[in-house]
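Why should sequence recovery work at all? Because a backbone constrains its sequence more than one might expect. Tight turns favour small or flexible residues, buried strands favour hydrophobic ones, and helices have their own preferences. The token representation captures these environments compactly. In the example below, the structure is given first.
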């Protein structure tokens, strides 16, 4: 009573306290970071190493395994996955989310520097990338215009923006000066490729040679010779000036080999992906990028820009939708209060508790360094209907006893208990692991904070504003509801057996629904479509483009916007020139792929819904299966067994690709005194050529390549020291696997299958590991059920402590299993899946549904001590209005939040269903059971 009295009799102090909290909350709103989701980034680092010409087996043995050995000693490493393909090693290191990645990165650089000395001479230095194959850009910008301007100005200005970790350009080819030698002329003139190479190197030197002093000044001296133009290269002398390079070679400046191309709505250009730094604000980074683009357009109007996707827009839209849901939910709850109160002051006083509970919460977000994101706002939306629960019970009792201080003080125990039990169920969220736990912790924090402020409001400013309220506060609607319930309670008290029977049936139905309700990791939400297609390995870019442009024409004719990316569009070696990806925005419905691809053969394709929310989760909608093996022979057996039992699976890197293997005949080579290096150097020019030097031309870097006319026929006719290559080597065309996948140091066959509710993984006689969606869902399901159990235990502890009884808490918690059954029934009725988001609603229900039971049982205990014969029945009639009001405000507050196909809708639907059924049980079963146990 003293606590309530302090605030009621010091109105200025009370007003100033809440004014200060509101001001701090409003200031915090404008200073908080805005994000799509909490920081759920799975820290990963990719290590890309080029080993040109090496087979996957050699890359694995000489490079990949040595990098893996270096990585395993680094603190915080969780998993290591590697892919060894033709000429490239990709090692992806996944860290624990609590790891200090910056410190680990420094340690990784030291380890790789040491490992590099054991690499073959032909292997490049490892390239460390802080983005990985699962990393997602926050913006995509299509740009058309001058190549040099885009690569030298636009990309560099974007990379200099604060918060941008990388501006990756796709569709760009480097400029090259190619020296294409004529083998017949070089052989006739006795000029070796090594001599040409040495000449090119000797005429491209920039070397400091000393200092010269002039008076009091010192000048450094550099010896500089450079061949930057085609004519300069042509006129370089060979064999002491007897010949020029132009005499035995064609020298020309060309674009490098095209390995990727970009089209927007059929128009060719370049594509820039914007990646943000860890823990930076995506909305602010996006705003800075947009500002720089506007500046570039002013400076270079000839450039054409199109932002094809921007996560910031989706973030802002998602936040707006939740804020609108908050406002509508609050208004609906406010309207519901009018239905039950006869005094105009009552709903206005109750409505004040909403902003007074929500706005100060933002100040706590600021202190706790929590961003405003869809999950924290979801917590506010979840709490909006519960914020007035405490105030309703307090105000109800104040009106009844006609004294603000006494009325509030009488229900302190019941109200505080109900709020604390609701808050307590959110603490076990710390036991939900993985991405699901990291998403739901901010939601829990926002609910706990807002409910804490609602409890403060209920016993401070609300009694102050309630002084002098007259009348019963009842409406005609309320009186009719009371009369209906009185007649209904008389009926079910005469048919108790039917009450018990129907209650058991309802529980059994809830259990059965749990087994049949569809399950997935995350609810399906759609922003745009991603169509991926794949032609046979290393199909030419023009052929891959041809199909992509036909598909683009089809979708654009339907009013959609399409971004087509063809070829090697990632720096990790996961795509080849036969790959195509079309990002489709604005297409109505979902296309029939079988109809679209009916005229194409030897092509694989897939269509997926893409959403920036789900992009934060790797492998959503699919299950990864890894079958481990030791030897290549075992790998073939594992692959065949998995293909036989997994009909719908896609196997990564197992397809066979044609290669030409050249086996040296060492005995003949020894007799002819021909070395392996001579053969390698000669062959290399007939394949991809050899980069001799790089020259600077202004701000541009141009590579000079030494090459020769290629092709299988020319390779067969190639000579080394006038000896035919096919005489000193054996040339065979063979097929090998595209790549070798390793996970945590063990070779594996990786299969990807779609996730389905009735997923049945067959048994295999080898080690099999699950990954992807099923692993995430199973982990979330187990941890959520564990959190549910902990929440039930905590609620029981709190209730037992407050009531000093072991039996009363059990009676109050009868509503919990029925709430779970109502939760399952609502999912099946609304066609909602049981997923990570809806599962948290099951945990939340534990705290919400006991509130009504506490209010009822608390009144029943008072009446029992007064000597009433049926205290449970009378308490249910007395507390009907606050119970219905609290349920209705919570349901209506969550209703806008539960509509549509948003990420959070399943959470609201499950809670609404569970709450409605638990309220019915509270008003029917609990009074009957209470009077059966406690009535004299």
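From this structural description, the recovered sequence reads:
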């Amino acid at each position: 009573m003293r606590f309530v009295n302090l605030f009621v009799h010091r109105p200025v102090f009370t007003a100033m306290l809440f004014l200060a909290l509101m001001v701090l909350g409003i200031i915090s709103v404008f200073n908080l970071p805005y994000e799509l989701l909490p920081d759920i980034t799975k820290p990963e680092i990719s290590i890309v190493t080029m080993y040109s010409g090496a087979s996957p087996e050699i890359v694995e043995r000489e490079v990949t395994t040595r990098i893996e050995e270096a990585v395993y000693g680094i603190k915080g490493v969780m998993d290591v996955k590697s892919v060894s393909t033709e000429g490239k090693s990709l090692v992806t290191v996944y860290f624990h989310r609590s790891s200090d990645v910056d410190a680990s990165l420094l340690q990784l650089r030291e380890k790789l520097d040491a490992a590099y000395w054991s690499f073959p001479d032909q292997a490049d230095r490892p390239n460390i990338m802080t983005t990985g194959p699962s990393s997602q850009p926050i913006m995509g910008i299509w740009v058309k215009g001058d190549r040099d301007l885009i690569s030298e100005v636009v990309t560099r200005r974007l990379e200099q923006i604060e918060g941008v970790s990388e501006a990756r350009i796709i569709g760009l080819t480097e400029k090259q000066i190619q020296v294409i030698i004529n083998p017949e002329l070089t052989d006739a003139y006795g000029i070796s490729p090594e001599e040409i190479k040495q000449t090119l190197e000797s005429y491209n030197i920039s070397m400091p040679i000393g200092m010269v002093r002039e008076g009091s000044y010192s000048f450094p001296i550099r010896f500089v010779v450079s061949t930057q133009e085609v004519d300069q290269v042509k006129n370089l002398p060979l064999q002491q000036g007897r010949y020029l390079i132009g005499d035995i070679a064609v020298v020309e400046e060309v674009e490098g080999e095209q390995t990727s191309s970009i089209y927007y709505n059929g128009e060719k250009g370049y594509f820039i992906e914007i990646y943000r730094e860890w823990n930076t604000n995506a909305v602010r980074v996006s705003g800075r990028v947009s500002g720089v683009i506007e500046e570039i357009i002013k400076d270079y109007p000839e450039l054409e820009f199109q932002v094809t996707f921007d996560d910031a827009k989706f973030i802002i839209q998602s936040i707006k939708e939740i804020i609108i849901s908050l406002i509508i939910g609050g208004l609906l709850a406010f309207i519901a209060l009018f239905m039950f109160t006869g005094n105009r002051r009552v709903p206005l006083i109750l409505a004040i508790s909403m902003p007074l509970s929500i706005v100060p919460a933002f100040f706590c977000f600021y202190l706790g360094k929590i961003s405003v994101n869809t999950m924290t706002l979801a917590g506010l939306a979840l709490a909006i209907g519960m914020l007035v629960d405490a105030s309703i019970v307090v105000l109800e009792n104040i009106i009844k006893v006609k004294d603000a201080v006494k009325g509030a003080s009488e229900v302190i125990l019941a109200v505080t208990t109900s709020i604390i039990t609701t808050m307590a169920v959110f603490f076990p969220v710390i036991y939900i692991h993985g991405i699901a736990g990291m998403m739901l912790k901010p939601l829990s924090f926002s609910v706990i904070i807002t409910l804490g402020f609602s409890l403060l409001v209920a016993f401070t400013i609300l009694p102050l504003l309630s002084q002098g309220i007259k009348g019963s506060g009842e409406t005609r609607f309320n009186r009719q509801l009371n009369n209906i319930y009185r007649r209904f309670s008389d009926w079910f008290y005469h048919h108790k057996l039917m009450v018990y029977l129907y209650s058991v049936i309802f529980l059994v139905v809830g259990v059965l629904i749990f087994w049949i309700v569809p399950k997935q990791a995350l609810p399906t939400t759609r922003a745009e479509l991603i169509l991926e297609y794949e032609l046979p390995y290393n199909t030419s870019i023009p052929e891959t483009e041809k199909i992509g442009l036909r598909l683009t024409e089809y979708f654009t004719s339907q009013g959609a916007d399409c971004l087509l990316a063809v070829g090697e569009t990632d720096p990790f070696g996961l795509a080849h020139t036969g790959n195509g990806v079309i990002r489709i925005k604005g297409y109505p419905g979902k296309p029939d792929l079988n109809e679209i691809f009916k005229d194409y053969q030897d092509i694989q394709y897939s269509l997926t819904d893409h959403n920036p929310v789900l992009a934060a989760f790797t492998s959503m909608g699919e299950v990864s299966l890894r079958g481990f093996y030791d030897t290549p022979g075992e790998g073939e057996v594992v692959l065949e067994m998995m293909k036989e039992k997994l009909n719908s699976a896609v196997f990564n890197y197992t397809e066979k690709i044609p290669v030409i293997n050249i086996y040296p005949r060492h005995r003949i080579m020894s007799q002819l005194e021909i070395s392996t290096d001579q053969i390698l150097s000669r062959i290399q020019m007939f394949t991809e050529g050899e980069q001799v030097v790089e020259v600077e031309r202004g701000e541009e870097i141009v590579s000079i390549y030494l090459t020769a006319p290629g092709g299988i026929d020319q390779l067969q006719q190639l000579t080394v020291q006038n000896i035919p290559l096919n005489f000193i080597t054996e040339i065979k065309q063979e097929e090998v696997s595209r790549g070798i996948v390793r996970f945590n140091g063990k070779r594996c066959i990786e299969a990807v299958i779609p996730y389905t509710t009735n997923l049945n993984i067959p048994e295999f006689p080898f080690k099999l590991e699950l990954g992807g969606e099923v692993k995430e869902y199973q982990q979330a399901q187990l941890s959520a059920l564990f959190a549910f159990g902990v929440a039930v235990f905590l609620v029981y502890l709190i209730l037992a402590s407050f009531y000093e009884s072991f039996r009363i808490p059990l009676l109050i918690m009868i509503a919990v299993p029925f709430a779970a059954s109502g939760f399952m029934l609502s999912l099946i009725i609304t066609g909602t899946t049981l997923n990570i988001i809806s599962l948290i609603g099951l945990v939340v229900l534990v705290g919400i549904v006991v509130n009504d039971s506490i209010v009822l049982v608390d009144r029943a205990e008072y009446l029992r001590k007064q000597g009433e014969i049926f205290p449970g029945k009378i308490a249910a009639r007395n507390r009907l209005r606050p119970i219905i009001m609290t349920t209705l405000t919570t349901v209506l507050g969550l209703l806008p939040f539960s509509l549509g196909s948003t990420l959070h809708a399943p959470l609201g639907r499950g809670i609404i269903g569970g709450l409605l059924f638990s309220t019915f049980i509270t008003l029917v079963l609990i009074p009957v059971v209470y009077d059966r146990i406690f009535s004299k």
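A few observations help interpret the result. The chain is about 50% helix and 20% strand.
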